[in-house]
């Protein structure tokens, strides 16, 4: 499995839409680095955080990744690079008919 090494400060932030697009077309065992840093801390926000804040988008990506794992679409793994620096990776799983229907129905429902 090849996951590119990137500098977290220069890495373009992934959106929930981009994650879903990757999820819809990923082949089994294909991987996507969806965050580098300390996810629990980087995605945290309070009620005063503006809706356009990157932390809110990161939280949406993290929730979608968790959802995809709960639906059997991906494996979620993390690699420790150094203290407080992790790479968060989604690895596409082989799709079952139920999982494919689940992804399509959710994405269509949310688009409406």
Please describe the topology of this protein.
Elements: H1 16-25, E1 31-37, H2 39-42, H3 54-70, E2 74-82, E3 85-92, H4 97-111
Antiparallel strand pairs: 1-3, 2-3
Helix pairs in contact: 1-3
Number of contiguous helices: 4
Evaluate the radius of gyration: 14 Å
State the end-to-end distance: 36 Å
User: From the coordinates shown, what is the CATH architecture?
Assistant: Orthogonal Bundle
Average the pLDDT over all residues and give the rounded result.
81
Structure characterization notes:
- With 112 residues, the protein is of the alpha+beta class.
- The protein has a single domain, classed as Arc Repressor Mutant, subunit A, CATH 1.10.10.
- It contains four helices and three strands; from the N terminus they run αβααββα.
- It has a three-stranded antiparallel sheet, covered by helices on one side.
- Strand 2 (74-82) and strand 3 (85-92) form a beta hairpin.
- Helix 1 (16-25) packs parallel to helix 3.
- The chain starts with 15 loop residues before the first helix and ends with a helix.
- Mean pLDDT is 81; it is low at 1-10.
